[in-house]
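Narrative of activities, Objective 1.

The group set out to show that a structural description can be obtained from nothing but a protein's sequence at a throughput compatible with the screening campaign. Below is one input-output pair from the validation batch, recorded exactly as produced.
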Amino acid sequence: MMAWATSDFPDPLAPSSVSGRPCDSVNETSRTIAVVSAKTLRPDKATNTVRVRIPDGVIAVKPQPKPGWKLEKVKGKYAKSYDYYGTPTSEGVTEVVWSGGNLADDEYDEFVLRGYLTGDLKADTTLYFPVVQECPDGAAARWIEIPEEGKKADDYEKPAPGLKLVPKK
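Output recorded for this entry:
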């Protein structure tokens, strides 16, 4: 399992193959920092690639480079044009890929990105960030299951990380 956190980083890491800080909520229309913590898929396998798909409504994504890892920002068209501080924005980063690293089976690491949550996103909804974690031999864990209406992430074996949007105060 995997989760995301805002820039306040309130809680310690939760255990799992891919995890994050359990404070999974932010106000809609804000900047947010997302953190994915990854450990290896199996005791005898290293992780060498982490892919994060960016959901609709999250724009102006800026990933943090990691020493020893290649950073790829896959760009594409957004589902629609968004207002980003008065500038119409219709394309940008749609996926972030960290590759070429070597996360050994007795280590964990964090992969960080920042983005802007657009005004189209509604409070009391959850954004899902599908993630694929890969090993050099081609083995992969696909944290991509998005809960159907009426279900929750715990109902799935490999749920996509979710970020709950809460109303502005």
